[in-house]
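Deviations from the work plan: none for this task. Representative record:
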Amino acid sequence: MKIMKISKINKWLAAGALLLFLLIAGGAYMAINSNRQISDANASVFSSVLTGLASIFTSNMPPSYFKFHIDSRPNVTFIFKLTDPEKIQEARDILAGKPRTQWKIHVMGTIVKTSADYNQLWSYHLDPATIQFFEAAIEVCDASIRYVEEHLKEVGGALLPGNIWCPWGSRLVEEVRLDQPSTVVSRHLFYNNSVFDGKNPLANDNDDSSIAPGKSALNVRSESHLCKLYELFARYQWDYDRYFQSRESQCR
Amino acid sequence: MIDISRAGRVSAADFQFKVGNDNDSSVWVNAPTPSSITVRAGAGRNYSDRITIIWPDSVIKKQWLKVTVLKTGNTNLAKNDVFYFGNAIGETGYGNLPNYAKVDLSDVNWINQNRSPAAGISSPYDINRDTEVDSADSDIAMANRTTFLTALKFITPF
């Protein structure tokens, strides 16, 4: 692993040094020829070499990952990968609220009908090389994230011809850091198969409406249920001191 | 429900479920197997992925459920996450002892005194969550009365 890391660093250093050398050499060449008119051919060759080198240099840049949702279904998200540094910066600009073109904020690309390790919850992903941001697109390439999942076999035929997908209301919500571990954001109890989830025993979006608002999980650090009970007991002036005195400070 | 910032296709193998009713959770027994574990991408708080775990009705009652979300390639956690939920059917918050959530006649009485045709989701008296506080709720509390021997304990797990 260590050897691989060193080798990678060396590759970067070598590419950087070469690029720097060419820039200096190019500068010198320009200076020497400042009194002469540089032929278009020479300038073009120099420019091509620089462009080629730049692309070699940037091809080693790590990819970035972004998550989007569709405005009409904000509680469903999809992760895609970008490898082009220009596109990565464009995505970051959009997230920062500074898109390069005011309305060019929606995501489109070509669907690949396999799951990707960074987007495991869906059976398909977007080909990173085809992803771009758009303002408006034709209706034939519009579909929701779940609809595509449920009709994946039809994609490329009557549904989303050419596998091109352009969800109209798609909007970036965050950059995803795969190099960092995930965290438990929250824990809930909900009343399954109750009036509040439409008497539906299955796990689905309706369950979100049946989350018990006043109930929280006990974990060793939070002791939230004890704090809650402390408040309840205090309200009714019960003799709670014996059990709760030691915890009182933790609840405030 | 558990919201994880970035979850994969989790299954029962990514969790450990125990049930018990005392502080020493190391001696608790395995919980019944959930009937379903479902992940919805982006359905959780702050665009996190929401995992919904469902057990059949009444298989875990009058005790604590300990959930350990394991550090796996599907949860992507840096370490195991442990939390607990307690169940005390008919408990309204009244008539408890310092160390127990005891369900007794005081709960039944409070339910009867707070009858309502339109109870909200946070009502402590609508035991069956049908949006009505009526005799069905007091009947449930009555049928699930506990003593200090059988009541849910206020635990400090270790």
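The first strand of chain B starts at residue 2 and ends at 4.
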